[in-house]
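Lab meeting, item 3. Inverse folding demo.
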């Protein structure tokens, strides 16, 4: 098969969606399929390159000013899709936003099946983004009628891949056809993300301090609930001098977080290391993983931490609830509740036996249910189904509710 995978941003911009798209592309290529990643061009970046074996074409040029961005972005996507209509067998869009609108609207010309994969449910999800969308020429006023038409248009896609039960329920509530919604959880490579054989040695190699270490990995973005995390850990850090909190990643909140940490005189206790080349090594060096998000699909960072054998504390939202069996494979806390997060982290840090039990169970759960090969299997089946026009649930090995068979 030949798959055109369209994503708004890609390497060297690296987040959960980008890592998952890259892992899927590599997995498909290793099985003999042809994949091209279509993404947006940024000044100074090459138009074409191969990243870790994945061909990348930055064929979407934009004018980054007000409504001109939307016009140039959508027209750029349309041109690129038409260019690849004689090459691709299927188009995979990693959202149900602008690219999805264009792919479905122009299908009479490119004549390719369209697989759409929304990010998550709730305020940070794609449907909510569409509700906040402003359409030129009424920009910046609301255009609710146009938004409703956009949603109806997008529902004509051939398949909608969801990573969580919450997202599936949201799409069905918005009128998406149930027989075209497939539950394909994210996948992780359990060989790359594996428990440490020498955690102390890896920590020393990374120049990390000794003592208990709580780690977060992800975008420094309001969606990730980092203000709640800092509020939760401040009293723990003051009560436990050897405790450190490590934040990996970058994003729009970095400056605000740095200022807050300096103001609290915790710059040597809450460490911001930015984007790192090998997240797995840092995870193997930690004692506890925390994900205090207020909105998630199925977070890659959580799967990676669980595969590494880390005990995990996550917000009881979205795909986190699908992945973690509370008290058995990890611990869930209410989103935005700093008190509950603090108490849970404190309990874990004081309980080595609990950390070991949860970490071991987390690893077993990921290997059994969320392996990368399993995810690629399901996408292969999905693509073949939409190309051949076969029923999706039957072809992808899933029942109508998206449950595991």
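The presenter then showed the designed sequence:
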């Amino acid at each position: 098969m030949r798959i055109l995978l369209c994503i708004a941003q890609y390497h060297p911009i690296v987040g959960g969606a980008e890592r998952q798209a890259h892992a899927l592309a590599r997995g498909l290529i290793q099985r003999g399929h042809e994949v091209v990643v279509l993404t947006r061009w940024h000044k100074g970046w090459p138009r074409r390159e191969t990243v870790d074996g994945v061909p990348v074409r930055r064929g979407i040029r934009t004018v980054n000013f007000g409504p001109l961005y939307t016009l140039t972005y959508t027209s750029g996507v349309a041109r690129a899709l038409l260019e690849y209509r004689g090459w691709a067998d299927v188009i995979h869009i990693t959202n149900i936003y602008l690219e999805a609108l264009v792919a479905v609207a122009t299908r009479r010309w490119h004549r390719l099946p369209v697989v759409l994969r929304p990010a998550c449910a709730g305020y940070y999800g794609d449907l909510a983004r569409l509700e906040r969308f402003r359409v030129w020429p009424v920009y910046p006023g609301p255009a609710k009628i146009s938004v409703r038409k956009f949603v109806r248009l997008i529902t004509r896609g051939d398949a909608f891949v969801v990573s969580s039960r919450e997202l599936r329920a949201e799409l069905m509530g918005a009128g998406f056809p149930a027989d075209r919604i497939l539950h394909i959880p994210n996948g992780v490579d359990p060989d790359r993300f594996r428990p440490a054989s020498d955690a102390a040695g890896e920590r020393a190699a990374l120049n990390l301090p000794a003592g208990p270490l709580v780690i977060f990995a992800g975008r420094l973005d309001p969606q990730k609930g980092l203000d709640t995390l800092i509020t939760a850990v401040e009293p723990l850090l003051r009560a436990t001098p050897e405790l450190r909190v490590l934040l990996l990643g970058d994003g729009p909140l970095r400056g605000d977080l740095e200022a807050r940490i300096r103001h609290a005189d915790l710059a040597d206790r809450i460490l911001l290391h930015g984007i790192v080349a090998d997240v797995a090594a840092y995870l193997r060096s930690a004692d506890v993983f925390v994900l205090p998000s207020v909105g998630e699909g199925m977070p890659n960072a959580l799967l990676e931490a669980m595969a590494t054998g880390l005990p995990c504390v996550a917000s009881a939202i979205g795909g986190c609830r699908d992945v973690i069996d509370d008290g058995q494979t990890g611990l869930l806390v209410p989103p935005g509740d700093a008190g509950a997060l603090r108490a849970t982290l404190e309990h874990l840090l004081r309980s080595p036996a609990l950390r070991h039990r949860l970490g071991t169970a987390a690893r077993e759960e990921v290997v059994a249910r969320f392996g990368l090969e399993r995810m690629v299997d399901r996408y292969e089946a999905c693509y073949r189904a939409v190309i051949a026009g076969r029923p999706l649930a039957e072809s992808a090995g899933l029942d109508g509710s998206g449950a595991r068979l």
